[in-house]
Specification:
The chain is mostly beta strands. Among the domains are: 45-145, Jelly Rolls, CATH 2.60.120; 149-183, no CATH class; 285-321, no CATH class; 348-421, no CATH class. It has helices at 178-182, 203-210, 231-238, 288-291, 343-349, and strands at residues 45-48, 54-55, 61-64, 67-69, 71-72, 82-87, 93-95, 105-106, 113-114, 121-126, 129-133, 147-148, 157-160, 165-168, 295-298, 304-309, 314-317, 354-360, 368-370, 375-377, 395-400, 407-413, 416-421. The strands form seven sheets. A six-stranded mixed sheet has the order 1-3-6-10-11-8, with no helix packed on it. A four-stranded mixed sheet has the order 18-21-22-23, with no helix packed on it.
């Protein structure tokens, strides 16, 4: 860069060459009265335009238009010249980091940077290349060459992403907060809740896990073999019944026994129940419909059953009943032809007769009189008349013949007394 004289002269001015004012020559060790403010040490600004990723500096303070700067021109510059680089208002200017080539710039952060509009990037020429100088004022993190801050928020941190420092939240940076730590399981003896999902688990691992029993309430299939089991454990296990289809010996005692299933099978000679009442058909909503067909079946050559039949509203036996010398009591009056009748009912409705006299031909030789009816009957003769007041089937006289070979009864039938042999 061509320098304009400023400050003290190094040698006296040659008036033959510079005859501006021969009467007042400038000698050596004298100072300029009105120095030029332009040049490498001046303070005027150059507006530079990038062409082919380079520009040619002519002043120390340079405002660059948008683009990427790969090299800085060498013309009109000398070694150790300083340049103050700014981006034009609204322009994005990228200064590329390169190492030592002619016109190339070596930046402090070792990476390319975006030039600020307000804080200069200072470079110094060393040899034929430029090196970023550490001077200048940085008022914001984002003005540091390798820091990129966007949409900053409270409690964020800076994290290196491999090429620059960027602002990140704790979540974005994968750093656990106190709340997040409370949601994490310990590495040693972790306890999980909900469903645990393992990402990218090989199929062979999933298959093997499916073949394992859970630690809590495991369910096994087939034969379970426990390796290196002490003898005492084996002995104790041998004394235990299997969970599936267990077989017990001796007396099994249960506090409460609930049996679920279609059939309950008891293989015993005698079933003894202390309870005096047995309930059957105990469903959620019992009715005659649910009770229909319920009862007791005794197995034999054929089934012997006592079943409740809803359609007849009665207990039905498929075998006859023998009550021996016992009685059937509290029977209601019959209403059908096959209904069972009591003695009282028969006496009242079937003419239960009263025995008036019993005789046979060997012991009865005279006429006898039935006092109730004031009627005399001749032994051995056919009774042809009856006393008034004797109702039908109300009285009878039993007669046994001489040889005791027959029993005859005189009954009231169709208005007459008739002798009838009944045995």
């Amino acid at each position: 860069m061509a320098r304009i004289a400023w400050g003290r002269n190094k040698t006296q001015l040659d008036l033959s060459t510079y005859p501006d004012n021969p009467s007042v020559p400038i000698g050596s060790s004298e100072w300029n009265q009105d120095p030029e403010d332009g040049g490498i040490l001046g303070f005027t600004k150059q507006s530079a335009t990038i062409a082919s990723n380079t520009f040619a500096p002519t002043k120390s303070i340079i405002e660059i238009s948008a683009g990427t700067v790969n090299t800085i021109g060498q013309t009109d510059t000398n070694e150790f010249d300083l340049l103050y680089l700014f981006a034009s208002s609204g322009a994005t200017v990228t200064l590329a980091h390169n190492n030592g080539g002619t016109g190339q710039v070596t930046l402090l952060a070792g990476v390319s940077k975006t030039i600020s509009e307000t804080s200069p990037t200072i470079v110094i020429r060393k040899g034929t290349s430029w090196v970023e100088y550490g001077g200048g004022i940085t008022n914001a993190l984002n003005d540091v060459g390798d820091v990129t801050v966007t949409s900053v928020a409270s409690d964020e941190i800076l994290q290196w992403n491999g090429s620059a420092w960027i602002n990140q939240t704790f979540t974005e940076a994968d750093i656990a907060t106190a709340t997040n730590l409370a949601l994490k399981a310990n590495l040693a003896s972790p306890t999980f809740t909900g469903t645990v999902v393992l990402p990218n688990v090989p199929a062979i691992v999933t298959t093997q896990l499916d073949l394992k029993a859970t630690l809590a309430s495991p369910t096994f299939t087939g034969t379970v073999v426990l390796p290196n089991v002490p003898a005492i454990v084996t002995t104790q296990l041998d004394l235990k019944a299997t969970l599936a289809s267990p077989t017990f010996t001796g007396t099994a005692v249960f506090d409460d026994l609930t049996v679920n299933g279609t059939n309950t099978i008891i293989n015993s000679t005698t079933l003894t129940v202390d309870d005096k009442n047995i309930e059957m058909g105990s469903v959620a909503t019992p009715s005659d419909v649910t009770a229909d067909g319920g009862g007791i079946t005794l197995k034999g050559t054929s089934d012997k059953t006592m079943l409740w039949v809803d359609s007849t509203d009665s207990w039905t036996f498929n075998q006859q009943l023998d009550i021996g010398t016992n009685k059937i009591i509290n029977v209601v009056d019959p209403t059908t032809a096959q209904g069972v009748a009591t003695k009282a009912y028969v006496d009242a409705n079937a003419g239960g007769a009263t025995l008036l006299h019993e005789y046979n031909n060997s012991t009865q030789t005279t006429v006898f009189t039935v006092s109730t009816n004031a009627v005399s009957y001749d032994v051995g003769t056919t009774v042809a008349s009856q006393a008034s007041g004797v109702g039908q089937r109300e009285v009878y006289i039993r007669k046994i013949d001489t040889n005791n070979e027959g029993v005859f009864t005189i009954i009231h039938k169709n208005g007459a007394l008739v002798e009838v042999q009944i045995a």
